[in-house]
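Weekend entry, working from home. Most of the wet-lab plans are on hold until the incubator is repaired, so I used the time to fold the two sequences that have been sitting in the queue since the last round of cloning. Logging both here for the record. First:
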Amino acid sequence: SLSADPIAQGALAGAFALILFAAAWHKLSEPLMFEAALDAYRLLPSGFAAPASRALPIIEAAIGVALVVPASRQPALIAFALLMALYAAAMAINLLRGRAQIDCGCGADVHLLSWALVARNGVLALAALLICRPDSARQIDWLDGVSLIAGVLGLYMIYLLFDELLRQHGRIAHLRRQPQTQHLRAKQHGLPGSAS
């Protein structure tokens, strides 16, 4: 099957690794920003945000390295799926609390929480689990190598494009909510211009 094909499996695992490397880089390059984003989730006990914000990018990078090494790929895929599920759960909890205005902490730019982000991480976790099986034993030639590299880069570019669409959609939705929120606050306080 496609999920057991070594090229398809390697392409997906390589794309997952690039996602983790980029995420770890953003967190390490802006440690205070990521710590603030993590603290804003209000899921960790007081004082835990700082050590957690330093540990998470190291964990992401370690899983990324394990994904590109064939011998450690299977457990790394499980670890990747668990990490994505953890992130999705943290986002979902805050969305259910009505806290969609906080940054997800996913990268350098502000990326507001949304159910689309939860779904994105869920899809990544599911994809990792679907290919978490021994690949079929077949001879790999140079053309397979080219296909593997093209597959990794192609899948990663698709992810980046989709992620940017989610980011822009979140910004537009936030801007649309602002006038409604201001109107409701004005109405509650009886300010001029609050009449419907």
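Second, folded right after the first finished:
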Amino acid sequence: LSLAALRGAPSSAVTARAISRAMGYLRRVQVPCTAPTATRFGLPFQGGQPANPLASVQALVGIAGTLPAPSVAGTSVVGTRCGDPLIQQVSAYVARQVLAGKGAIPSAYEDGAADWNATAAGVVGLAAAGAAPGAVTTGIRALGRNVNAYVGSGSTASPAAAGTLIQAAVLAGAAPRSFGTGRTNLVAVLLATQRR
């Protein structure tokens, strides 16, 4: 998110250098092209560690640009190669994670569990990058079936989750005021979390 914030800041030599350094760091720690396909192009939380889906989707949001992102037409990332741009490589990794999980990025902390936060951020990142429309659709549909598992409801609703899901819905072309199989009004859920 820091990278996304820098991209949204007024242009200056200082911000340009900071963005360049951040992108260079991500390139250096990225899982190499020689890795197995499942982890190829992913990003770790720290250099020398294995690819992590959550770290990769968070980086993709920053690489893709500022938030809120414009809704853009998607392009395929199938056949992404070693010499392709970082945004395309990380998008390919995130798309593989979404599609392999039938719409849910797996949790890095609990075997067999879905990470709905990573999935929503992945949809935001892919849509903002204009990449992998099939993975965006698959991810947003899975999120639509699991709104309560991710956002909660009533007094247990998470404003951060609701806000992220609103952004994912808008970027994926879904209606945030009638979202998913339960036709949840995510805007109303978010507003109900305000403390007075």
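Plan for Monday: verify the second prediction. The two ends are 28 Å apart (CA to CA).
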